[in-house]
């Protein structure tokens, strides 16, 4: 025979209090004397009672759920970001509701609008225009953006220093003696412009301008597709900086398939410091943008907003250069 699930009325009867008292205790809408709270905790534990989140929502208007959107969960950068956000959510007794928009701009607003109805607040990775993002404001949910600065004062933001990341990677290449430098970017991503600006500023100090190439997606397969046209073009660069590590790893793999020796024939590097890069051959030089920490700080900022504290832009997270074998070849100019 199926065991009967205890109800809030069972807890009230066993603890010798009213149903209203149990409800207020569970939903933290009122404090009681220490003996009463201790008796309620012991009774709930003994009966194995679990509160109904829908009922709690009806009482408090809170779901204890945070919505988190990512652009592509297959990208380990976003996986790390989710891990960091979830770590903080669990510490504060919140649950994450994840939406993967799959790099689909046509469906992005629809998905985020639906997500907003089910959660207390939102942490967003989005390529939506500012005008489209502003349409989320009337939903009256706290919002923290990652990797973009919104002009809307209702939205907070958490960002790595992408300009600095581009600068330091370019400086490393100049220090290694590279002068013929290409950049395989992804123009649809907001960090792309900042990373390119940082590397261009650094290279200009040495009288160098990067040669620009464009990937059709921020993925490993896009790096593979771009590889042959770059390496068999009129003059291949000595080194290629890629918008992210996935593009770089795809390029690196296809370059080896085409018979090139890396890093001697062409050096390759990227951004994000995803774990795959450490185990590739050659190991991938990259810039660590602190993906997990981004998720942690974004969640902390959102919890502050839920507590009534003002949102705004957080100071930029400092990137860190990770040098591996993929840029340790001998430049042609050396």
Automatic annotation (TrEMBL):
GO terms for molecular function: DNA-binding transcription factor activity; transcription cis-regulatory region binding. CDD domains: HTH_LacI (cd01392), PBP1_LacI_sugar_binding-like (cd06267). PROSITE patterns: HTH_LACI_1, HTH_LACI_2. Signal peptide: none annotated. Residues 6-60 form the HTH lacI-type domain. SMART domains: HTH_LACI (SM00354). Pfam families: LacI, Peripla_BP_3. Keywords: DNA-binding, Transcription, Transcription regulation. InterPro entries: HTH_LacI, LacI/GalR-like_sensor, Lambda_DNA-bd_dom_sf, Peripla_BP_I. It comes from the Bacteria. This is LacI family transcriptional regulator.
